[in-house]
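Batch manifest, entry 17 of 40.
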Amino acid sequence: MQRIEKVKEILKERGIDAFLFSSQANVFYLSGFRSSHAYVIVTQSSHHLLTDGRYFEKAKADLPGWDVSLIKGNTLKAIKGFIKRLGVKRVGYEEDRVSCEFRKRLRTEGINWLGVGGVLKHIRAKKDGGELERIREGVHRSDKVYMRLLEHIREGMKERDLRAFILQEFFKEGAQGESFPAIVAWGENSAIPHWETSEREIRWGRPLLVDMGMVWKGYCTDFTRTVFLGKADGEFKKVYQVVRDAHLFALEKVKVGNTLGEVDRTAREYITKKRMGKFFNHSTGHGVGIEIHEFPRVYYKGPDKDVIIEEGMVFTIEPGIYLPGKFGVRLENMVVVRGGVGEPLSGISLDLVEV
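Output type: structure tokens
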């Protein structure tokens, strides 16, 4: 219940009587209950989960110590009625997680609704021991799938064949599914950072970029490697080495007290020094946890550039170079801040692999 107590502290600090959490991620974070239709209400003295008949019995069984209430009929009407019965007046809601229509329909006589954005983002950014254990397990299992993938690749397969293999192997490992649609990009397709896996056939003599992640016990993994199918040529080796070095230089900057902007800037300045800066067109990383993209973003500009690195944070390091019409190279690991420094969670080497 430590997470609930932290929310109660936030309520007291902000002078709010209660808070309505409606996003699946935050409902899961606070309750441990995963549902497509559940809401958490926290007051300064109580906490409640509201859900419909599809999940009600399971929620009661899974959440001892919680007040679990059944939603009947119109959802927002039921929520507003429940809040009125609590007798609270100033109620916060997730301003950044709801639609304009939801916000409009919240209006309730006698209740002052207060939109608050990112209310849990700083709390969720620092993972506790249980979260880190789940993330480590997920990364370990993802690593095993990747090693089996390297053995499975055959010339003439399609990109989608490999994605299907990845998903099948995730389920064999006990995953709940993909944390995002896996990217399998062969040849010049790898020069598009978020390529949509296609029916393109794979041939030897070109690179293959694989970006994949599983959901393990509610937590996401994220991992990218770029391999060469056959014997790599000089140009590919040169680009690969720059990306690998940029990754390692960025990792060295992952220290408690440094800013996330420093991590990104280190990778970016090195790639620029090698005259490839214009081919690195995304941030160096992002937070990962219950969601695949979480606070904070690892970027030298923007709202998170001055965020101080703290113990327990988990984020990616994933510099890349993308040469249009030729190929791209991205190397990505999830990193946990442990003992004051960054520790890669994957056990897969960053060294070039020629399949």
